[in-house]
Amino acid sequence: MSLSHLPLLRGRDLERASQPQGSSPTQLHQLAPAGRVVQFSGDLSGAQTSCAAALLAQLQRRGETSAWITPTHSGVYAPDLHAHGVDLEALLFIRLPDVSLPYGACRAAELLLHSGAFGILVLDFSAGAPPPHERAWLSRLAGAARQHQTLVLLLTARAPTRSMASTQTPAHSLGPLVFLHATPSRQRTGDSGGFEVHHEIHKYKAGGHPSLPPTRWRGPWGLR
Prior knowledge:
CATH architecture: 3-Layer(aba) Sandwich
Strand content: 25-35%
CATH superfamily: P-loop containing nucleotide triphosphate hydrolases
Number of helices: 5
Distance between the termini: 66 Å
CATH class: Alpha Beta
Largest sheet: 8 strands, mixed
Shape: globular
Helix content: 10-25%
Order of helices and strands: HEHEHEHEHEEEE
Number of strands: 8
Number of domains: 1
């Protein structure tokens, strides 16, 4: 067959072709392949940090190395990560001073990615991400993630509306290079310390609109 008669595949076609045919994702980690940029967003009552920890722990069990970049005054608590199954001795945990954010976090992530030593990198933008019109940083991270087959997980916060400070506006995707954008939210269950986490999928570039079943969680001791 002549090469001129072969169909051309676009980027989105290649993403769909990489997905298992005839199967639909039933777990969050199935929506977050290596070499992609994934975004979890939410407010203080959300479950984006817990989901990030669970995803990181799962990749650690596969033998992947991991790193977590977070502001100095973030709410990430090491014992809680350990409770989610994270091996703290195998986690490079970086706390950056607030004055260096958000660009210092982007630069640190870029350096770690180009080392080629990590299977998953969590970048905490809960204190604020770069402005929407600045996307060169995301292009560099996405390129390095694809080159080294690293899953880059961005944690972002919802912004309060101007009219009502108590309400939250839906968080937007940080850009077209984000492969998956989801908002995990938690709801209390009847048992003491129990939570149910629901995943709202805003964007999934592999095609379709997956719907994940809720998962059951047990809160840290301070919330029981």
